[in-house]
Amino acid sequence: MQVYHLSHIDLDGYGCQMVSQEIYKNAFENPILYFYNANYGKEVIARLEQIYKQIKLQDTGSKAHILVSDLNLTLEECQKLSQSVLELNLEGFQVSFELLDHHKSGQECAQKYDWYVLDTKRCATKIVYDTLLERYGLCDSIKVWLEPMVDMINSIDLWLENTTFFEFGKVAMRLIVEAKELNRFMFDDTDREYKLELLRNSAQFLKENNGHILLDNAILEMKKCFLKGSLLSDTLDNLVSYYQCELLRQKAESCSVYWGQYRGFLSYSIGNISVLANLFLKHNTQFDFFMDISTRGNVSLRANNACDVSLLAQKCFNGGGHPNASGGKIDGFKESFVYADIKANIQDILES
Question: Which residues of 71-105 are buried (b: 16+ CB within 10 A; e: fewer)?
Fold first, then answer.
């Protein structure tokens, strides 16, 4: 069983993926689950393209199911999805797909396509839960904590102020919004794992008296535990830096770029890299500089006396600064959601 689940980037979107992960793992032995997240606009198409490419890496004849949740597609996007799945099936794959959503703005699409399920009276998490529960069932040991979490997300996403879990939902919504310690473009899978783990850990407080207050007090400890620390082991900032540094080290080969004789590490959209970049360069001396590109094409450069990044910024990015800390700007930069495309563009600039 191969499932490709694309969802939104808020509490409801991640709630959908928490539900699908639990139900599919309960229903199938060793299901292959691929998760993707997107905001609206161009990112939706970019993530769907990633899904098509991933399916094509599988053996012809493989069965795959594409699930889109908490995202209302445009008519053009719906037509593109239908056409792409048809082409995959003509190539010999066995691909099914469905969209489960609650945004009224998708009504025109829902009227045109039978695979577009729209219900404005339930949040997307509850639609996914009800749909997959009816289809596959769920053991009581999981249902006992998952179903209340679904009701909680439904209460806050539809803003049902008089429901039992509304106050808890306010805290849970903030929990996801403020879980920005890991960059989702550089650390997509880990960032998602982080948010889903925080949600699952939240369930222990849901039925407690003043559970919303207990959750509010526990958030910092929950975050630190995921980052391999504890409440009193270190500051959150330091734990995040060391955790990210290790994640970056694992990407050393795939994220390397070269400017002449110098080797650099390229990150995308991390921002505020001073502490992280210096820590990374200190522990990974095979790199001469660290470069981060923002979604608007702003360039941040750091070095540790191995390369004059002020000269790099001046020559390649119309910028400047200090030998170990500089910046610049890429004219005409086009935002992308695929790291490989960003890297190819930057390497071309460095070589030219």
Answer: bbbbeebbebbeebbeebeeeebebebbbbbbbee
User: Can you tell me whether residue 103 is helix, strand or coil?
Assistant: coil
Give pLDDT tens digits for 178-200.
999 998 999 999 999 999 999 99
pLDDT at residue 228 in the model: 96
DSSP 319: -
Q: Which of 283, 325, 245 is nearest to 237 (CA)?
A: 245
> Residue written as tokens 């007090």?
217
Residues with Cβ < 8 Å from 255, sequence gap 6 or more? 248, 265, 266, 267, 339, 343
Please report, for the chain, how many H helices and E strands are present, in that order: 13, 11
Question: Tens digit of pLDDT for each residue in 104-163?
Answer: 999 999 999 999 999 999 999 999 999 999 999 999 999 999 999 999 999 999 999 999
User: What stretches of 91-235 show up as alpha helix (H) in DSSP?
Assistant: 107-112, 124-136, 140-157, 166-177, 188-202, 211-226
**271 φ/ψ angles, rounded to the nearest 5 degrees:** 75, 155
Alpha-carbon span 180 to 280, nearest angstrom: 19
CA gap 135, 44 in Å, rounded: 26
35 vs 189: CA distance, rounded Å:
8
What's the chain's length in residues? 352
The answer to pTM > 0.90 is: yes
Q: Is the distance from CB of 260 to CB of 274 less than 8 angstroms?
A: no
What residue has token string 């070589």? 351
Q: Which of 125, 119, 92, 94 is nearest to 107 (CA)?
A: 119
Helix (H, G, I), strand (E, B) or coil at 256: strand
Write the pLDDT tens digit of every residue in 150-172: 999 999 999 999 999 999 999 99
Q: Given the DSSP bridges, would you call strands 94-101 and 32-37 parallel, antiparallel or unpaired? A: unpaired
In the block, tokens 């249902």 appear at 143
C-alpha span between 266 and 106 (Å, rounded): 38
Pairing of strands 32-37, 63-69: unpaired
